[in-house]
């Protein structure tokens, strides 16, 4: 059974695609979204295994949305929809397993569904791998982090993050807007934040270097960082030199 999320900012286009998909066997439409932000919020809740998404949407376009969705629902495959052939080519550069040109044609939709149904086990995982490889190659970089609170996914800009900590396997991100959950590991987040001002300072902490207010010397050559909110965070001894270099300390 294919469970499908439809993402398009135009209601007639969603309705047309929904009708054509309803003619297919073993297909369930689990939800609709009218923007990239709405799609991100629904994706984690609905757990669709396929997302049909318009490339040209107002605000966050389909390509930018895809980059974020790969971190939230990594097993989900993408099918892009577009009214222009050149965007179909671009869709494949970000890893879509197929694309549909508007206006939609029943036979073309049927072919796409059959292609998706033929993916099984290793073939599905290989297709997911191609999506990730293509996204990495396309260098789409979104400077926001998808965070969870009260069942919602909030996109918070890196500049608005104060620090991150992990406790008993749960990753919590402290921002200027409050605390949120992050549904992965601190190590994965460290990799995602590479080449930014958010740096791993301890096995349990990542800190936004722009939010450091004070460096507090401690015993035996160790230090603590005081960040926004007057929270003190330890620096691992093995990372002291790196952090001092970043902050311009001798």
Automatic annotation (TrEMBL):
Modified residue annotations for 4-aspartylphosphate: 54
Pfam family name, one: LytTR
Transmembrane segments: none
PROSITE patterns named among the record's database cross-references: HTH_LYTTR (PS50930), RESPONSE_REGULATORY (PS50110)
Coiled-coil intervals, chain numbering: none
Stretches assigned to the Response regulatory domain: 3-117
Keywords linked to the UniProt accession: Phosphoprotein
UniProt GO molecular function: DNA binding; phosphorelay response regulator activity
Location of the HTH LytTR-type domain: 145-249
InterPro entries: CheY-like_superfamily, LytR-like, LytTR_DNA-bd_dom, Sig_transdc_resp-reg_receiver
Protein name: Two component transcriptional regulator, LytTR family
């Amino acid at each position: 059974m294919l469970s499908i999320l439809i993402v398009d900012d135009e209601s007639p286009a969603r309705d047309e695609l929904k009708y054509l998909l309803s003619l297919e066997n073993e297909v369930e439409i689990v939800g609709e979204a009218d923007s990239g932000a709405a799609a991100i919020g629904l994706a984690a809740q609905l757990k669709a295994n396929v997302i049909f998404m318009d490339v040209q949407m107002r605000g966050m376009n389909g390509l930018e949305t895809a980059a974020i969705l790969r971190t939230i629902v990594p097993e989900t495959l993408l099918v892009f929809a577009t009214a222009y052939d050149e965007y179909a080519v671009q869709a494949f550069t970000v890893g879509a397993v197929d694309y549909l040109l508007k206006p939609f044609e029943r036979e073309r939709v049927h072919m796409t569904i059959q292609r998706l149904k033929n993916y099984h086990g290793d073939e599905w995982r290989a297709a997911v791998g191609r999506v990730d490889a293509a996204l990495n190659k396309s260098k789409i970089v979104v400077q926001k982090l998808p965070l969870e609170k009260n069942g919602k996914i909030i996109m918070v800009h890196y500049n608005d993050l104060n620090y991150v900590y992990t406790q008993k396997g749960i990753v919590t991100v402290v921002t200027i807007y409050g605390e949120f959950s992050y549904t992965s590991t601190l190590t994965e987040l460290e990799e995602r934040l590479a080449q930014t001002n958010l740096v791993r300072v301890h096995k349990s902490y990542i800190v936004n270097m722009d939010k450091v207010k004070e460096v507090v010397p401690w015993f035996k050559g160790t230090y603590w960082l005081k960040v926004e909110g007057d929270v003190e965070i330890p620096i691992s001894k093995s990372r002291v030199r790196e952090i001092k270099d970043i902050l311009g300390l001798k």
